[in-house]
Structure formats: C-alpha cells, structure tokens
Amino acid sequence: DKLWVVDTGSPEFGGNPVSQDAKLVCIDLPTNKVVRTYFFGADIATAGSYVDDVRFSAGMALLTDAGNAGIIVVDLKTGAARRVLNQHASVVARPDRDLILSNQVVKAPDGAPLRVNADPLEVSIDGIWLYYGPLQGPWSKVCIYDLFNSALSQEQLAARVEFFADIPATGGSVMDAQGNLYFSDLAYDAIRVRRTDGQIETLI
Fold first, then answer.
1. Residue 11: its pLDDT value, please?
2. SS3 helix, strand, coil % of the chain, rounded to 5?
3. Contact present, 85 and 72 (Cβ < 8 Å)
4. Shortest CA distance to 81 belongs to which of 8, 147, 35?
5. Which of 9, 55, 65, 182 could lock 21 by a disulfide, CB 3.0 to 4.6 Å apart?
6. CB atoms within 10 A of CB 152
7. In 3D, which of 3, 117, 129 has the Cα closest to residue 62?
C-alpha cells in the first residue's frame, strides 16, 4: 500500500542536483499522502549525480547513481544514507559498450556516445544478492549484507563483487518469484529473460 518515488533532483542528465532536491519519497496510497521523504545531501547526491532506480531489502533502500557512478544505501528507519562502490568498475559504463536505439548509437549533447553508469538493479528472491550494472551492462552481484556492513572498507567491499550476467542495455527489469530476470533489450526492441541456470531467452 506504498508508492515509492525517486526524484533525481537534477534538471538534466549530467548536470548537478539542485541542493536538497534529490530524494526518495514514500506515499501512502490509502490516504494519498506523502508519509516520509528521505533527502540526499551533497555528500550523497554529489556533483554529477543522477539518482535513478530503487529496490528494497531488510529495511533498507538501495539506489543506483547513473551519473556519479555508485550505489546509495539508505536505512529506512533512521534515514541515514551512505555511498558505496564509488567509481568501481561494476558501476561505471564501459567505453566498449554503446547504447543502441533503432540501429543508432545514442549520443550525448557533446556528440560523444552516451555513457550511463549504474542504473538497473534487482534484489534476489532470498534477499541475499544485489544484481546491478551500468545501463549498457554487464551486470555484477554483491552480497547485500556486505553493502550494509559499514565496517568493511571500500577496498574490502570491492573485492567481494562478482560477475552476474552479460545483460545488454535495458530500459527496465523485474524478477519473478522463481528468480527469473525479465528485461527489455533496447537495441532489438525485445523482452528477454535470464533463467536461473544462466540461459537468456527471447520472449517477445
């Protein structure tokens, strides 16, 4: 009965968030009222940040930053937020993977191929793993409780990141109760599924 809304706080992709505008908003649907807002300060939504998707696990929110590459972890009870995996290879868009739409490479305003950092993410059905990656893929995985563990250094956390799947540029994803990952394939206007055995099939 809750609707969660991510406000990037940024007037344009690649720009800087307006001060205190990047936030996660919780709306109570029965009353149609905002019941809590989690504001991201300049230490969380930093210069160049574009806070994007969100998933939830164990009383925490996990958000991707598609601009200033990283993952944001929010304690939903206290509101405390941390950035993790900043500029790690698993969240930074690779230069050898272009974003293709209608057989055309998507370009940034400066004419260079558009690069979008950490964007899609999913939580495993058992709540143990976070699957995530740049918009153009590939995806990695890391234990969610390692993300929550503030005692781990950034180097220790980075060492626990593993490869998950070579998923192409996607505009959205969802995981079913069996752990099958469904995603849109932007380059081919297709809906595909990654089965739990790692096989990828085309549905539509």
1. 84
2. 5, 40, 50
3. no
4. 147
5. 9
6. 16
7. 129
